[in-house]
Amino acid sequence: MNPGQFEALPIHWFYVGTAILMILCYELGCQIGLRLQSRQEEETQTSLGTLVGGLLGMLAFVLAFTFSMALSQHDHRKQNVLEEANAIGTAYLRTDLIDTRHGMEVKRLLKNYVDIRLKAALSGKDIDIAVKKSVEIHDLLWEQVAEAALEAPTTNTSLMVQATNEVIDMHEKRVTVALHNRIPRSVWVALAAITALTMLTLGTQIGLTGKRRIITVVPLPLAFAVLITLVVDLNRPQSGLITVGQQSMVTLMENMEQATE
């Protein structure tokens, strides 16, 4: 499955699929244990109990590590939204420091810029189109600011140039963190492998006892599936149940609309 297909998979489907796969691994382990039951030795069951405990501890550690990574990235995305709103707001205010002709055009471009990015972030759709339009607006903004600076090379125009650079830099920073900084595929592979081995070994241990009761084990895969799904949701900022708040950008848009009335 490529990244695009993975992103398109509904989060509740991922939860159900994860829980079913864990239960299937447990059931496979039970069948193996039942076949080995007649040949089991007491030491075998004891060693398996130690192994299951170690695998459960390892699974908990990898889940905690992955969750921490996803949560940290989520916090960075929220911080970047606030920083970008501040950078755009500063640039919008500094347009009053340059020539009126250029300043009015820059204000219009910045308002359009916020509108494009806000709609894409709230809908979670057409992200690539929004990024492309944002880059086009960067070129138009720089053209206006550079022309104003060449016509009147003062401290005020320098401040406007600096503010425009910060807007462009924040775009790249936000796009990189939101679209490219994800949990590495190797971590997902390790998590899947440890999860499967844990449930398989647990099932084998239960099968060896001859007291297979799947209903007593169901809560364990359901609980782990919740945690894994939560990590997946945090790793998908454009979709899912947990999204990055855009209130600072919404407030900025409202202030811009009020200023133009």
Automatic annotation (TrEMBL):
The chain crosses the membrane at residues 12-34, 46-71, 187-208, 214-232. Keywords: Membrane, Transmembrane, Transmembrane helix. The keyword Transmembrane applies. Pfam families: Bestrophin-like. The keyword Membrane applies. This is DUF4239 domain-containing protein. It comes from Desulfoluna butyratoxydans. InterPro entries: DUF4239.
